[in-house]
């Protein structure tokens, strides 16, 4: 089978959507750091719709991989083309799928191979927007406070090596310095990661790094560049070999790097752009003055409940989200978690039906066609819990309200960190703080056999829990649920929390 390539576009099956603009005339107005599956199934698809609707060809994309070359190696022979497969289930439960070949990704740079090329691409006159989908750990910040970690080895390296950075803050700030020196216009820095106030967080990190480089650079960025907050939402599971085979068979061309997603998509963006933007409303984006209410809704309702479902499901030996949410005790728990503990912490939003939102979310989690792995969602818990669950915990405690179901979710993460589920199957702990977490658990176990004392010691780990480890109500609730998980298992713990 021949490889997917621009020359093959006219010959694809009629039911496969494809670029309809003059792809050879695209200019790269966007540089996107973190050109993984989520970006290619979300912003890139919205951008594709904008190109079709407007014909404004200034908004092609150059992707940047900050670590591995796999995406570049897969897409380069395909001229940057790849397929998005949107999957859900028909009324009879059978999976169905629609395909679209996306064309606005012009090139992929691999930062470790040629850091100078990345700096020059961000500093190119055509570049107007620098997007980021690098996951929480790519910000090199303290998850509990949002502050840049100046003691981080990568940050220290980048401050000393402006021509060969390794981290996002290093690439962004040193490239912005080139733009300033060359008297080029500023750019918009657009975070698409699941962080609270992601634009404000990014701004704080960039400015903190820039202050270390040159106070004048700090002032230039602060004055001229913009950092809109945004909220992104689409479930994008990891692509499997079976996905590649199935999609390639339908195309009649081999696609080595397709992405799979659910039909649902949401993107809310503050309309603060320093140097123009595409009309992303054509692809379903919504421009607003303040994104914070939407961010909180998404982080707490979607991401918070997703993480709770993932840890409990994984520990019960349930490999996919749809299988986990099909267990009555788990579904009832997630429904009650959202309704009784998360929803009361959310601001009022005109036109939002929270009951309908919750019901739709449970339906999305139930999508059997996605096969979304619980272990994928369970990754990087130290970076995710502070904004997905612990912020809600703080609000509930401050209001004198119970945190029983939230505490169970936190206990499930601690339970997951032991590295084996209730069936005896082992799993790797994929987390940038994995070594520190393992050491903390070991120290907790050595210090005491009491669950309460172990939890009190473990939750004293400030990079994740901040001050919560010193809050007796939090420690007590987490310890009680962890004891139930360890002694009787997930289902019994869910029944006790009902």
Structural class: alpha/beta
Major beta sheet summary: 5 strands, parallel
Count the E strands.
11
Radius of gyration: 23 Å
Ends apart, CA distance between termini = 54 Å
What's the total helix number? 21
The helix content is 40-55%
Give me the oligomer status: single chain
Q: Low-confidence spans: pLDDT under 50, at least 5 residues?
A: none
Mean pLDDT: 96
Can you list the strand order of the major beta sheet? 5-2-1-6-7
Could you please describe the fold and organization of this structure?
With 498 residues, this protein is of the alpha/beta class. It has 21 helices and 11 strands. The strands form 3 sheets. The chain has a 5-stranded parallel β-sheet. Helix 12 packs antiparallel against helix 13 (354-365) and helix 16 runs antiparallel to helix 21. The chain is globular. The model has no long low-confidence stretch (mean pLDDT 96).
Summary keywords:
alpha/beta
SSE layout:
Elements: E1 28-33, H1 37-41, H2 43-54, E2 60-65, H3 70-75, E3 82-89, E4 95-102, E5 105-110, H4 115-122, E6 129-132, H5 153-160, H6 168-181, E7 188-191, H7 198-213, H8 215-224, E8 230-233, H9 241-251, E9 259-261, E10 266-270, E11 285-288, H10 292-315, H11 321-325, H12 328-342, H13 354-365, H14 374-378, H15 381-398, H16 404-416, H17 434-447, H18 451-458, H19 462-465, H20 472-488, H21 490-497
Helix pairs in contact: 4-6, 6-7, 7-8, 10-12, 10-15, 10-16, 12-13, 15-16, 16-20, 16-21, 17-18, 18-20, 20-21
Outline:
With 498 residues, this protein is of the alpha/beta class. The protein is built from 21 helices and 11 strands.
């Amino acid at each position: 089978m021949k490889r997917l390539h621009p020359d093959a576009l006219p010959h694809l099956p009629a039911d496969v959507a494809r670029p309809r603009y003059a792809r050879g005339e695209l200019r790269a107005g966007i540089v996107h750091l973190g050109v993984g599956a989520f970006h290619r199934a979300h912003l890139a698809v919205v951008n594709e719709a904008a190109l079709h609707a407007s014909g404004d060809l200034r908004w092609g994309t150059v992707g940047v991989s900050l670590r591995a070359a796999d995406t570049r190696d897969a897409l380069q022979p395909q001229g940057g083309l790849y397929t998005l497969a949107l999957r859900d289930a028909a009324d009879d439960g059978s999976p169905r799928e629609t395909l679209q070949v996306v064309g606005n990704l012009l090139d992929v740079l691999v930062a470790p191979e040629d850091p100078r090329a990345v700096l020059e691409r961000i500093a190119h006159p055509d570049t107007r927007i620098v997007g980021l989908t690098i996951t929480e750990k790519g910000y090199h910040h303290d998850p509990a406070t949002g502050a840049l970690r100046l003691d981080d080895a990568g940050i220290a390296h980048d401050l000393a090596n402006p021509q060969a950075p390794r981290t996002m803050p290093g690439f962004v700030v040193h490239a912005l310095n080139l733009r300033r020196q060359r008297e080029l216009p500023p750019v918009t820095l657009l975070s698409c990661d699941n962080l609270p106030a992601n634009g404000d967080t990014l701004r704080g990190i960039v400015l903190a790094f820039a202050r270390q480089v040159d106070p004048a650079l700090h002032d230039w960025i602060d004055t001229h560049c913009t950092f809109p907050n945004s909220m992104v939402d689409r479930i994008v599971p990891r692509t499997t070999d079976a996905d590649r085979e199935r999609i390639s068979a339908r195309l009649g061309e081999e696609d080595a790097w397709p992405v799979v997603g659910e039909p649902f998509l949401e993107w809310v963006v503050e309309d603060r752009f320093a140097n123009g933007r595409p009309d992303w409303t054509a692809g379903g984006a919504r421009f607003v003055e303040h994104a914070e209410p939407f961010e909180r809704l998404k982080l707490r309702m979607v991401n918070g409940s997703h993480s709770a479902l993932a840890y409990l499901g994984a520990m019960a030996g349930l490999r996919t989200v749809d299988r986990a949410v099909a267990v009555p005790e788990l579904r009832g728990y997630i429904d009650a978690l959202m309704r009784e503990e998360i929803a009361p912490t959310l601001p009022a939003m005109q036109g939002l039906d929270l009951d309908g939102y919750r019901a739709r979310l449970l339906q999305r989690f139930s999508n059997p066609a996605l096969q979304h792995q619980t272990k994928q969602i369970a990754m990087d818990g130290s970076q995710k819990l502070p904004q997905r669950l612990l912020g809600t915990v703080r609000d509930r405690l401050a209001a004198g309200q119970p945190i029983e179901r939230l505490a169970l979710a936190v206990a499930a993460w601690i339970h997951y960190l032991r590295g084996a589920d209730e069936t005896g199957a082992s799993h790797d702990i994929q987390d940038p703080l994995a070594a520190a977490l393992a050491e903390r658990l070991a120290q907790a176990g050595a210090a005491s056999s009491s669950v309460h004392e172990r939890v009190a010691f473990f939750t004293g780990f400030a990079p994740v829990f901040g001050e919560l480890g010193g809050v007796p109500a939090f420690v007590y609730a987490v310890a009680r649920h962890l004891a139930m998980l360890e002694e009787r298992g997930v289902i019994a713990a869910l029944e006790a929390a009902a």
